Amino acid sequence: MMPQDIHPIAFVGAGPGDPDLLTVKAVNCLMWADVVLHDRLVPAEILALAPQAQLISVGKEGFGPSVTQDEINRLLVETARTGARTVRLKGGDPAVYARLAEEVDAAEEAGLSYHVVPGITAASAATAALGESLTKRGRNAALRLLTGHDMKGFAEQDWKALARPGEVAAIYMGKRAARFIQGRLMMHGADPATPVTLVENASRADQRIVPTTLSHLYADLSEAELNGPAITLYGLAPRAAQAAAETFIEEAL
User: Locate the Tetrapyrrole methylase domain: which residues (predicted)?
Assistant: First the structure.
């Protein structure tokens, strides 16, 4: 059975960018799609899996030119109502900072059914690149997924809780908010030596990893000149760097 025979709309996670990290279900949806409404950062290699489909870019860019959410909702409903098998292809996982709820609301209000195909989110891909774990016994029993900015500007968080030793957070869209995040955390008592790692283009051939510490976050980010999408992993260092630091501490003692 074709994956969209039951529902006219599929919200599909394209993962972090490496086509090999797509789910089988995501590939099937693309193979049978008539129309694909895709994010700006979905790579050509993934779009090539739907050669039969009409491709419509509905990308958004932080602080840059973007297709409005109202326009995306309109296109989604309009396309599905023609009877076309419609895929809304979102980078990462559709349910993580991808406005899935707003588009689902639009589909339901139009009387259109849908299904959601999850994808690998950037936090998972970036942490895998470090050889690290998002959770670890004895270190962090919780994980926070945060956004660097919201509709009002830089996003406020529970900084006091985040500043506690051992906390781990994956910060999406955090490049422009780096100085703000750094200042808020240190103001609330976070250790300046807390490891922070920036991962640009996680999982892709041009992936870059920039390890730093909270006190050097803004300076190292500026020096790195990251142009692609990047996720900030607060409380995590690349595994090799972490092991070297622990060895140095043990020898010093």
Answer: 9-217
Asked whether residue 183 falls in the same domain as residue 109, the answer is no
Q: Which domain holds residue 215?
A: 122-247
96: left (phi over 0), alpha (psi -120 to 50) or beta: beta
Do 126 and 243 lie in one domain? The reply is yes
Look up residue 202 and give its two tokens. 């996680």
Tell me the CA distances in angstroms from 117 to 4, 93, 223, 227, one per residue in order: 11, 8, 38, 29
CB 3 within 8 A of CB 23: no
Give tens-digit pLDDT for 30-42.
999 999 999 998 9
- Residue at which a domain ends, from 57, 92, 117: 117
Q: What is the count of structural domains for the chain?
A: 2
Full-model pTM: 0.88
Q: Which residues contact 176 (CB under 8 A, 6 or more apart)?
A: 62, 63, 148, 149
- Report the amino acid identity of residue 143: L
Q: Is residue 3 part of a domain?
A: no
What pLDDT digit, counting tens, does each position of 173-216 carry?
A: 999 999 999 999 999 999 999 999 999 999 999 999 999 999 99
Give the CATH number for residue 221.
Answer: 3.30.950.10
Q: What is the DSSP letter of 107?
A: H
What CA–CA distances, in Å, run from 245 to 35, 72, 248, 249, 252? 50, 47, 5, 6, 11
